[in-house]
């Protein structure tokens, strides 16, 4: 399934249990982020091995970081889950801020290429 | 509730200093448009300010680090300006009919971004109490605590400031000034980004 909002595109590939987000996320609060979180949750409930690809997410505001954290905390409580987060060293905010999510969930696999 | 004047942190307020280097100043007068429509202007303005700054950090074939430096600074200014404008838009009171302003000053060793808006005294006090707590806390510990807490509710958490402190090595300062009008405080937030 796909969400195309203009500023960002979210693509959930059910066959590979992968959610990719491309573009720029500057939504106002958890309420506006609900559609994004809902897709992440949908993938989480349907698999034990999930990938979230943020490598082409050029901008994420602090509400977005909060939303991601909320998702990570929910994922952390799921047994037998392998969660991989993909980032890019070419996108400066990712090298700085994604590693904090590993502090929340040490078993998170973070790959920043 | 009485008005108050207070400074927290090292508030340099370079806006009125005429010997400064490059300086960009934007002002936004709130009108009756709904927040949802005005929200997109935060990103537009932040990206404009970030792009503007890159003029002073050009890429050079002789300096292999110059491209990385430009991208890093652009990303940092964009994030910080966006957070400041989002906060101003969320927490300033359009009924006060006072402008939101944001200034960017380029110094030799830092970029300073100062955002100002008007707030009712009770809201300004609430913000002041939060930043006092921020000043007294370990930023990474508070950051992780806030991330855990956000999982449970959607209350404002200062996550933007904590991200600036932890991930961007920024320094923060605040000024609260009573205005000519009783019950209204001018709240200024200053973010200093080392370069």
Secondary-structure blueprint:
The complex is a heterodimer of chains A (113) and B (195).
Chain A (H helix, E strand, L loop, with lengths): L1 E3 L3 E6 L4 E8 L3 H4 L1 H13 L2 E5 L3 E4 L1 H15 L5 E6 L4 H6 L1 H6 L4 E4 L1
Parallel strand pairs in A: 3-4, 3-5, 4-6, 6-7
Antiparallel strand pairs in A: 1-2, 2-3
Chain B lengths: L5 E3 L14 E6 L6 H4 L1 H15 L11 H26 L8 E7 L3 E11 H16 L2 H12 L8 H9 L3 E8 L5 E11 L1
Antiparallel strand pairs in B: 1-5, 2-3, 3-4, 4-6, 5-6
Helix pairs in contact in B: 2-3, 5-6
Give a brief description.
The complex is a heterodimer of chains A (113) and B (195). Chain A is an alpha/beta fold.
Structural commentary:
The complex is a heterodimer of chains A (113) and B (195). Chain A has 113 residues and is an alpha/beta fold. Chain A has a single domain (2-112), classed as Transcription Regulator spoIIAA (2-Layer Sandwich), CATH 3.30.750. Chain A contains five helices and seven strands, in the order E-E-E-H-H-E-E-H-E-H-H-E. In chain A, strands 1, 2, 3, 4, 5, 6 and 7 form a seven-stranded mixed β-sheet that branches. In chain A, helix 2 (34-46) packs parallel to helix 3 (62-76). Chain A starts with a strand and ends with a strand. With 195 residues, chain B is α+β, with helices and mostly antiparallel strands. Chain B has one domain: Histidine kinase-like ATPase, C-terminal domain (Heat Shock Protein 90). Chain B has six helices and six strands, in the order ββαααββαααββ. Chain B has a six-stranded antiparallel β-sheet, covered by helices on one side. In chain B, a hairpin with a 3-residue loop joins strand 3 (100-106) and strand 4 (110-120). Chain B is globular. Chain A binds chain B through residues 7, 24, 26, 28-31, 59, 61-63, 65-66, 69-70, 73-74, 90-93, 96-97, 100, 103-104, and chain B through 35-36, 39, 42-43, 71-72, 75-76, 78-79, 82-83, 86, 90, 143-144, 147-148, 150-151, 154, 157, 159-160, 163, 166-168.
């Amino acid at each position: 399934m796909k969400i195309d909002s203009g500023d960002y595109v979210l693509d959930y590939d059910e066959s590979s249990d992968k959610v990719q987000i491309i573009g720029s996320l500057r939504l106002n609060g958890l309420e506006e982020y609900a559609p994004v979180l809902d897709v992440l949750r949908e993938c989480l409930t349907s698999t034990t091995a999930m990938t979230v690809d943020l490598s082409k997410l050029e901008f994420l505001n602090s509400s977005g970081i909060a939303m991601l954290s909320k998702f990570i905390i929910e994922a952390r409580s799921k047994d037998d889950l392998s969660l991989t987060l993909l980032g890019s060293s070419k996108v400066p905010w990712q090298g700085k801020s994604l590693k904090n999510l590993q502090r929340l969930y040490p078993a998170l696999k973070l790959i920043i290429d | 509730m009485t008005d108050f004047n207070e400074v927290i942190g090292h508030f340099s307020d370079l806006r009125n200093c005429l010997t400064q280097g490059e300086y960009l100043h934007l002002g936004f007068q709130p009108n009756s448009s709904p927040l949802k429509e005005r929200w997109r202007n935060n990103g537009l303005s932040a990206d404009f300010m970030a792009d503007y700054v890159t003029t002073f950090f050009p890429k050079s074939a002789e300096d292999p680090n110059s491209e990385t430096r430009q991208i890093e600074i652009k990303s940092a200014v964009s994030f910080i300006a966006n957070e400041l404008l989002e906060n101003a838009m969320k927490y300033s009171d359009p009924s006060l009919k006072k402008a939101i302003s944001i200034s960017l000053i380029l110094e030799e060793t830092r970029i300073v971004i100062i955002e100002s808006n008007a707030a009712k005294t009770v809201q300004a006090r609430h913000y002041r109490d939060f930043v006092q707590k921020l000043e007294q806390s370990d930023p990474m510990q508070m950051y992780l605590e806030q991330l855990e807490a956000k999982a449970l509710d959607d209350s404002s958490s200062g996550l933007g400031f904590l991200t600036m402190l932890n991930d961007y090595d920024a320094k923060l300062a605040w000024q609260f000034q009573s205005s000519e009008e009783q019950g209204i405080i001018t709240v200024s937030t200053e973010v200093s980004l080392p370069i």
